[in-house]
Amino acid sequence: MMPTIIDKPIKVMLVAGEHSGDILGAGLIKRLKERYPNATFSGIGGPRMLAEGFQSYYPMSKLSVFGLFEVIKHLPELLGIRKHLKKIIISENPDVFIGIDAPDFNLKLERELYKKGIKTVHYVSPTVWAWRPKRIKKLIGSLNALLCIFPFEETYFKDTAVPAYFIGHPLADKHQHPINTQAARQSLGLHSEQPVLTIMPGSRLGELERHSFLFLQTAYNCSNNISGLKILVPMPDQVVADKFEEYYRASGLTLDLEIKVRATTEMIAAANMVLVASGTATLEVMLFKKPMVVAYKLSALTAWVIKTFDLLKAPFVSMPNLIAGKELVKEYLQDDIKVATLTEELVSFYQDKDKTQTIVNEFNKMKIKLTRQADIQAANIVSGVINGDVSF
User: Fold this and answer.
1) What pairs with residue 16 in β-bridges?
2) pLDDT confidence of residue 313
3) Considering the entire predicted model, what is its pTM?
4) What is the DSSP letter of 91?
5) 253-276 pLDDT tens trace
6) What is the 3-state composition of the chain as percent helix, strand, coil, each rounded to the nearest 5?
7) Left (φ > 0), alpha (ψ -120 to 50) or beta: where does 36 sit?
């Protein structure tokens, strides 16, 4: 059903802090423009949002700072940007402000704008269910709506004063009818019956530093157990790809390995099994219904802080396990990561077809649960906030 078109000019201001937020913002803007053809969109966003007619006051890269101690180094600049942006937003007095993820930047901004009478929406729940649960206090009395992309998040907030709504996950919509294994292999020039292991050591340079040798050694051991094994390595950009190439050369290992930029979809779809660092990538692998093993190492200092202050509250770190509420996927963290164990798990998926089918069936159930036309759902709630008819 087509949404009702409202001709009045409205102002929508948004802040996205990284690549994934830019994707969410662009999808939301596109759907809001269908309802409000005379709307203007501004704030901070990336190339996809800009392509939808968005005006960005700062490059999104200014907010794309990761890691506990990396943020501290950039804190004065980030605080200055937020202070200046707040002045702009208050002077513009938009019909709604939408903070997309980036909770450390957006939550305080939303709270201050809400107190000024500006309607606010936060898109993507902060991981209060996983760590730093006291942040839930920052959500209460700060928002007209919290858009949750996982079903367990709406449940988590059910008995609180946070107006949370599960809208589904945009990636599930994107991969509702994904490329199949044979088509993916054909596009990559692979033989249809060749065994394939895809390794995804991370998209950030720090992750590559911590994971590359472990993942490469595991791939080498798997190759010794599976004849003719092809190793695929999808990378988000050339900088990261070149760095991984350096680690591969330094490893001294010889593998039938291919590194490719912006081929994540094809390389996951082509795989028999996947070794993946924790993060959104685990969700993508799940949506393609590929058996996986998850391994992740934090920097020594960050790991010490989290352990010392007991900051991690979630029982799992990978998206499939969090969504299922149980261990479907094997997770290995920090010193528990052993090449022999990773190898054994991955090889078992190739050799045990019943084991693989069991996990594929579970992934299919979760995929159905997440596929809800998230962009449209998000636009419905934002429109309700603008019109004052979202109830909680």
Assistant:
1) 100
2) 63
3) 0.84
4) H
5) 999 999 999 899 999 999 999 999
6) 50, 15, 35
7) beta
